[in-house]
């Protein structure tokens, strides 16, 4: 009987399978050897991708060429995994199609903001857009605290049809059509958690959170821009949040505002007039959560803090009677305002300038951390020509 000889293609496939199997065995035994060779701290670093070429955590054990090679491979794979996760997150889009909220994280109302946040967390991040039917302002009346945001997101209120960002260098002509109200319960608004660094909150009206901050940033690299925080959608009536409009609780390089008209926030009416530690923007730890890394390099730029949207006056011929405009209680390297060069053009217009007027006090500084306050209008209107005073000090560094 003649032996059956498989055709060439079959032999090649079998050979490839054998080679693949052998490579898999080599990789498996290599990983096992690496696991045994590494200290526990380095094992943790390799698992979470925190090890880099410039970081060595080998304790007393000597790194061999073999383990060094595998460390470099592991670091490269971890970096590729992070880049892939970021790209995947950026491609995820979640549409909010209803203003309804049932307060139930286990079974949220379909198409609700609550559902979008939960789905974005599960997907590792993404973009939350708004497509709620109906004309005019759509108010989301929360019935319970939203889930913490645990993955990088962009929440963009300007995606609601007919909404638009501000284009005026002085004043504000934005159209805000998504309002987030906390009037129905006691708690905070949007919380950007430690795992959600690099998030953006844009184009929202956030008001009436009576026992929690409108926005809390617990991680780094986040941006809050183009929002009305503590007012109604027109920016002319205060509907404050207590204790703060925006709280920077931790992390490096958070940005509140920006240097363009589109990035300007109106943050007014927040805090409780006469209450210590309450205000429109607070750089201070969050309460009732594990401690976050102290804020570093926080930028507060281009905002109207304590005034109406026009930057001129409030509804009673004066600015909103807020508590402090900005409070620095912790952290280092905070910059409030800036210079002409910060907006990229030496044209005499300071895009980084905040208008800080109409507050009990303009800026309170508790922390000695190389902070900079420069280029702002404090105690005048947005034109810089008319008085619009704070009721106490413009800048108080004696606390």
Describe the protein's topology.
Elements: H1 8-37, H2 40-48, H3 65-91, E1 93-96, H4 113-123, E2 126-130, E3 138-141, E4 153-156, E5 178-181, E6 190-192, E7 200-202, E8 205-207, E9 215-217, E10 223-225, E11 228-229, E12 244-248, E13 255-257, E14 266-267, E15 279-283, E16 299-301, E17 304-305, E18 324-328, E19 335-337, E20 355-356, E21 363-365, E22 372-374, E23 377-378, E24 395-396
Level of helix content?
A: 10-25%
> How many helical elements?
4
Q: Tell me the major beta sheet.
A: 9 strands, parallel
Oligomeric state: single chain
Rough outline = globular
Straight-line N-to-C gap: 101 Å
Task: Describe the fold and architecture.
By secondary structure, this protein is of the alpha/beta class. Helix content is 19%, strand content 20%. The protein is built from 4 helices and 24 strands. The chain has helices spanning 8-37, 40-48, 65-91, 113-123; strands spanning 93-96, 126-130, 138-141, 153-156, 178-181, 190-192, 200-202, 205-207, 215-217, 223-225, 228-229, 244-248, 255-257, 266-267, 279-283, 299-301, 304-305, 324-328, 335-337, 355-356, 363-365, 372-374, 377-378, 395-396. The strands form 3 sheets. The chain has a 9-stranded parallel sheet. The radius of gyration is 26 Å and the shape is globular. The N and C termini lie far apart (101 Å).
